[in-house]
Specification:
This protein is α+β, with helices and mostly antiparallel strands and 165 residues long. The protein has one domain (11-159). It has 3 helices and 3 strands. Helix 1 packs antiparallel against helix 2.
Length: 165
């Protein structure tokens, strides 16, 4: 025999409604965390793509105008949404036979006075990315993102005449 309450309803049905509410309460935080994690992942990808674009644009400038400040300004303008500054953009010039592919060395293998077509212009843009989701921020407080672009110099800008290049 099935048990009924005073109003004629089955008691088991009321228990099922409560069970669904408890299951929803357990699953909801997991769903919210996944959705917010996907938003953070999208923001990180956007940040990296913008950083890569800024480095590429600055390297394109560097192949015809080797003035460091002009190259940095181009990177900052291309990555405006990231809030880049000159501290976030490294610019250096290496000989085509150099084994270095970044600006980790403080000296340029291809200084302005002896710069020739074929020297490599290397631009590295970097920024620290912080997730916006509090739970993910506890796991990964910040991630250092960087992008390097190198191009061979196509035109040597005469020293002291950078404005006409």
């Amino acid at each position: 025999m099935s048990r009924t309450s005073g109003s004629g309803r089955r008691v088991g049905r009321r228990r099922q409604r409560g069970q669904g509410l408890v299951e929803f309460a357990i699953v909801l935080p997991v769903i919210v965390l996944v959705v917010l994690g996907l938003l953070d992942l999208g923001r990180a990808i956007y940040t990296y793509n913008t950083l890569a674009q800024a480095a590429r644009q600055a390297a394109r400038t560097a192949i015809v105008n080797q003035t460091t400040s002009a190259v940095q300004d181009q990177a900052i303008a291309s990555g405006a949404t990231l809030g880049l500054s000159t501290a976030n953009v490294d610019v250096c010039f290496k000989t085509s036979s150099s084994t270095q592919s970044d600006c980790s060395s403080s000296t340029d293998d291809c200084p302005q006075s002896s710069r020739v077509i074929g020297c490599m212009a290397i631009v590295r843009a970097h920024v620290s990315y912080a997730p916006m989701t509090p739970v993910i921020a506890l796991i990964l407080s910040s991630i250092n993102l960087s992008s390097t672009s190198s191009e061979p110099i196509e035109y040597v800008c005469p020293e002291g005449r950078a404005t006409s290049c």
